[in-house]
Structures are given as C-alpha cells and as structure tokens.
Amino acid sequence: MKTSEDFKNFYDTVLIPDTKKLESIRNKIIYSFILVGFLLLMLVTLTLVDLNNMYLLIKYRHLFIIISIIILLSITILYLVVKFYYVIKFKQLIINKIINFIDENLNYSSNKYIDYCTFMKSRLLLSVPNTYSGSDLVYGKALDTNISFSQLYAAYKLKKHTITLFKGVFFTADFNKTFNGQIFVLPDAQEKMLGHMASFIQSLDSSMGELVKLENLEFEKQFVVYADDQITARYVLSTSLMEKITDLKDNIGIDIYMSFINSALYIAIPCSNNIFNPKILKTLLNYEIIEQYFLNLQLLVGIIEDLNLNNNV
Amino acid sequence: MLIIIAIMLILMLIGAVAIVIYNGLIYKNNQVESVSSTVDILLKKRYDLIPNLVNVVKAYAKHEKDIFEKIINLRLKAISEQKLNIEVMSINNQISKQIDCIMAISENYPELKASKNFLHLQKTLCEIEEQISAGRRAYNAAVTDYNNAIQMFPSSIIADLARYTPKDLFQIEQSNKDNIEVKFNI
Fold this sequence. Notes:
By secondary structure, chain A is α+β, with helices and mostly antiparallel strands.
C-alpha cells in the first residue's frame, strides 16, 4: 500500500498542474457568483432607494418581480451547470489519478455504481427500496482480490415523503475463505445502552438468524453478530479477524455494517457526504485537502490488507 | 374462595415458568449435542484425509516412519471411540500437532512441496483445521451457555430435578501449545 510520503511525491509531480487548472475553474465559479450576487444587490438597493418615487415601484412591480425571478433562476442554473462541469473535471483529473496511483489494476467510473442485485445480495437492508442510485464506482483486482465500491443511495418513496434506507459508501470483495451461509456483523447499539441485558433482547430477534456470542470482548461491545450456523460464523469470524474488524471500525470512525454471504464480503458505511466530490468553497491548492481524498480512498482499498482478504485459506 | 383461586393462579404461574425454564434447558442441551455432532463430522472428514496424506508424503520422505506411525495410531484410536468426548478431542489435538509436523517436514522436500496432490491436501487440511477450530469454539460457547443455565438460579432448581450435570469444555493441552520440534531422520 502507498504511504503518505509516496502520495506527496505523486502530488508534487503529477497532481499540481491539474489542481491549478481546476482551481482556476473554481475561481471563475466563485467570481461569477460574486458578480451576479452584486448585481442583484444593486438592483434591490436601487429599487429600495427610490422610495421617494413609490409610484414607479408600484407601477413596475410586476416587471421587478419577473426580472428578480429570471436572475434567481439564471443563478441557480449557472451554479448547477458549472458545478456539474467542475465536479466532472475534478473526478477525471484528480480522483481517477489517485485511484490509479493507489493501485493501477483498479478502474474508476464516476457515473457507474454497484448494481442493485449485488447490493441486495448483502441482505443488509430489511426493506426493499423503490429508489436506487449511486455514483463513483471503483472496481478491479487489488492485491489479488476482486473488490468494488461506490457511493449509493437507496430509499423508499412514499406519497408525501421519502425514507432513506441507505446513503453512503458500499464495499464488496471476495472473502478469503470458501463457505456457504450468511453472517451479519452489525453495530451493537443495545450493548452500549443495556450492557449484559442486551444479549437477551438481541436473541429474541431471529430475522437475521441466530445470535452468535463470540469470545472477543472488545468486538462484542461494538458489534452484534447473527448467523444461520454457529460453526460457520466462527469459521468466518476467526479471533484475528474480529480484532481486525474492530480496528477497521476505529479507523473509519463511524458505525459499519457487514455481511458475509457465500464467500463474499459486503460492507455498508453510511455517510451523508460524497467522498469523491470536491468542495466548491475549499481551495484545491491546499495539499491537505487533496491528501484527504487519497486517505479516504486508501482506507477503502486498504480494507483488503486490514482484513487479510488477500491471504486465501 | 378467592384465596383458593389466587393460590391456584400462583401455582399455575410457577408451573408455566418451570416449563419455560425446562424447555430452555432442553434447548441448550440439544444445542451442545448438535454442535458436538457437527464437530464429529468435521473430525471424520479429517480422519479420511490422513491415509492420503501419509501415502503422498511417504512417496518422498520414506524415512519419516515415526511420524507416520504415530499419526496412523492416533487416527485408529480416535476412530475407535464411539462418541465425541474430551479424550477424543485430546487425541485430535495430538493429530493436529502431527499434521503440523508433516507439513514442517515437507519444507525439506522441494519435490513434495511442488506436488499437486500434496498442495491440494495441504489446502483441504488447512480448511478443515480452521473449521474444527471454529467447531471447538462453537462447542465451548454452547457448553458455557448450558453450564450457566444449569448453575444459575432459578434454572438450577429445575436442572437439579432433571439431573442435568455440567459439561466439560474442549481445551487445548499445554503440550499442544508448545512449538513443534521436528527431528529429521536422514
């Protein structure tokens, strides 16, 4: 896996010209907004200043409203178009290169995402979404292991509102052991609230299989495990893998949801932000901003080594 | 009259609780038996592979008679036991150690290491070892659950009446935790 030093060299030699190109686009977006905002302010100010001549304001009020709406719509359309262009360019020039730098066998496509069947195979959602979309698919073979991950959005749209079922990064890879069955590793919110009593309550929920109580105390505090077979669950969740999962969760910093189904691993990491998108208000000439994209992507690809997926049993 | 009804209701409640506890104990006991039989199947899978392993390695390392004899004798001893118990697990722990010895020996025979049969056996045995280890862990978890149930109040009362006794956990003996010492017969 590449280090931060390797990335610094890569940034200095390859990425700086691209960040400068993108920064000039970003500056144009901001300047254009400042200009339009200023014009709008001028228009409003002039109208308000002419209070002495209220007759004009009342006579031309419809024209004023129409002009204001046109300006606001123009600003919105301009913002969306330029942002869209900026985001596409950023992904082509920066994200694509970072992914190839991390591992040249990985591919990236900004408008593809993990397909619905693969997502549903994970069985991490208890409901079936009627809205499914995503972006930023990374796929390929890194360290001899097939992996893919992307941003995903799954929701259930009702008449009056929408229930978000999942929004974040979804990761899938071949597991390093062959097995049949399903094992779910979920965040243990009840253990944090109820302590030892949590096991009793969790054992009553059989929708995902039997409750599996494991020996690693730290792992048990953070996760609850359900499986359709106790032995298969322990075959998959070895003592070393439990430690690695706990460390991975600490590195990512938020709750993660995992399932192991028929020799495949699925990880759902809920997050509201798109980790591939640039932030319009932050300059790209700051190395730490670009480095954060590398660290996020490296963290995801690094799951292979972190969980030892490239060592087949 | 009211007192009689109240007493009857209390007795019915106690009876219901006793039935629930008793059923729970049966469930936990059956869990132990179920896991035990699965572990037994895994061990038998390994017994079936041992003669293949010995034949393949013997073709290249004819001198290592001691190890082959030891593992064959252990296998016969394990097969002769009717039911999985602590002694059978102890024999199997020794079998695991002998298999590790054979794998260590193979390092000294490059042709053996390159043999497809040997590589396939090695991979299969490794998988089965992992599954047996998982089975041991599952058995211990089931036994711990069962032992907790028969020793903790109030299920201990029902357990005593039903003559349930604690079960032993599968342990790895100290001698099996020690590093393998391989002596080459050259």
